[in-house]
Design goal:
Number of strands: 16
Radius of gyration: 55 Å
Shape: elongated
EC number: 7.-.-.-
Protein name: Ion-translocating oxidoreductase complex subunit C
CATH class of one domain: Alpha Beta
CATH architecture of one domain: 3-Layer(aba) Sandwich
Helix content: 40-55%
CATH topology of one domain: Rossmann fold
Low-confidence stretches: 531-535, 606-627, 651-672
Strand content: 5-15%
Strand order of the largest sheet: 1-13-12-16-14-15
Structural class: alpha/beta
Subunit structure: The complex is composed of six subunits: RnfA, RnfB, RnfC, RnfD, RnfE and RnfG.
Number of helices: 18
Mean pLDDT: 84
Keywords: 4Fe-4S, Cell inner membrane, Cell membrane, Coiled coil, Electron transport, Iron, Iron-sulfur, Membrane, Metal-binding, Repeat, Translocase, Transport
Membrane topology: Peripheral membrane protein
Amino acid sequence: MAITPSFDTVMERLKRQDLWQFPGGVHPPGQKSLSNTTAIARVQLPEVLYIPVRQHAGLEGSVCVEIGSQVLKGQPLTYSNAPYAVPIHAPTSGVITEIGEHTSAHPSGVPELTITMRPDGNDTWTELFPIHHYQHLDKNALIERICDAGIAGLGGAGFPTHIKTSSTKPVEFLIINGIECEPYISSDDRLMREHAWQIRQGVDVLNHLLSPKCIVIAVEDNKPEALKALNIACEDNQEIQVVSVPTVYPAGGEKQLIQVLTGREVPRKGLPNDIGCVMFNVGTCFAIADAIFSGKPLLERVVTLTGTALQKPQNVWALLGTPVSHLLSYAGYMPHNQNEQQVIMGGPMMGFSITSLDTPVVKITNCLLAPAKNELPSAADERACIRCGFCTDACPASLLPQQLYWYSKAKDHDKTQEYNLFDCIECGACAYVCPSEIPLVHYYRKAKAEIRNQRDENDKSEKAKQRFEARKARLLEEKRLREEKHRLAAEQRKQAMAKDGSAQDKIAAALARAKAKKAKTAAQTEAVEQPIDAPQKSAESSTVKDKQAKVAAAVARAKAKKAEQTTSAQSQPASEKLDKQAKVAAAVARAKAKKARKQAEAEQGVKQETDVIDPTATDETTAAPGKKAKVAAPVARAKAKKAAQKAAQSEPAEAENDAASVAEVNDKEPPKEKTAEQIKREKVAKAIAKAKAKAKQNKSGENAE
């Protein structure tokens, strides 16, 4: 697809100085004579430098210095391998005192990562590596040198220069922008007047990298001295066309200047190289020449100090990171000439008021404006829109600023994008002609920021969703592969067994042997346990039941006797009570003896049943328990007999002792009637004593066994 107008047509009109025009535009008062009448001055070193890590349109680098590090002038402070990142360098020699958040050069003043440095006053350079014959150097190495020098566009956008020089599309027009159309700013004007030859050197380097068909240097017609200096510097190269452009704001905009010089319009979502054009600022050309021929990175730039609130408006070389307060003090700042303290970074059309005088100078800072009272319109003067349409006539991008204003104010972001909000170059021409003094650009910037934030959130959500779905698909695929692998392995085993019939027979035989062995083991275990454990368990269960029955009967008899004693205690004389107590003691003794005999006989019977063992069994597991039982049976019988004799002997003695003790108690004190609580306690004590005796007997029986 051919690009119109053609290259030949453009060249013919450039030679005739017959240029095109862009729509809209305004003619604000220049006010450039305040600062462009004196040469660029050098400012003394500030006490402290605040160097933001990110000073360009792109990614920030990683800090490669630490607090307390001694650095030299030109030493890199950050590094990055990202394509859109450029490093920053130490503007002078000194010590790093802090790395943290500091006020940024942004309309919001939001803090950003900043390296704080205290100069040592020596201004000692690091080692430099200039290139004298750049034509002999590989283009990629030359582009890398430009990137390492930290050069970004100095015209205001801050786009990394090495990205533009890496263009793979054919370039017809290399345009050098010397249009400084915004009021008050004169930094490029003084740079072109005083350093035209070095700008020409930077143009030669760009010509070597891009190989354009034509080089056009555009300068406004209100800068005759700069135009003359560039003509002299470029007169030996016929490929360079120095063109005077009519002074119309915003002719310095990238898209507007390309349209003025070539008649071509940059696509709405395209770039200048899509139509065969590449543009660089004159300040960028100066920095490229410094980096190639002197080996110096980008450490300083020309800044215009202007406004009627300054005693000495002028242009100065300002180190990057210099606080605004230091430059204003050098120019004689008079805050009392203002209604309220106001310093604008940039011009009155596209600049913004800074939130702190500690805000540092960065690579895109071209002007500091300190207006006096009533010099610029105040934001407090905003009134309602009267729908005059002047903003539409002034818009250089052919937009509808009034509609954009309404939708931006209502936060209807879909409508603002429908009306091409992002085509707005924020030149401020609409706000300049607005009779209601509405800061239209302010609303547009705010709406753009909100839309960008929303896009970022949506992008993050979409990426998270994609990661989740990718992980889910990966897990499902891994599961499918595992199942497929297992299925294939099973099929292979089946096929192998089908081919080899002996393998199946071997497996069946092994299973049969395992089952037979298991059955044999179970039978042996049952034969061993049945003759020994079964009689023993039955005897034990019967013994336990007998004991429980005897204990229950004894408890019932004891309760009955105690009840009789309680009811007849009051009516019976003391002698009858004594006889009854003696009888009770004798009965208890007889019961204990009888219980001991029965327990001994039961144990003897269990031992005899245990001795009955299968005489045919020859296994060691059956022989050992039989021997133990034969040995234990006589021992148990002997112990039972001894216990019976002892009980028979002790029974009369215990009865006599009990009777004597009762008589002695009755002689000492008369019997007292027992309360229900005392009777209850005695019952509990007797039950505990019986339980202890029973436990002791059981334990002695187990030991005997």
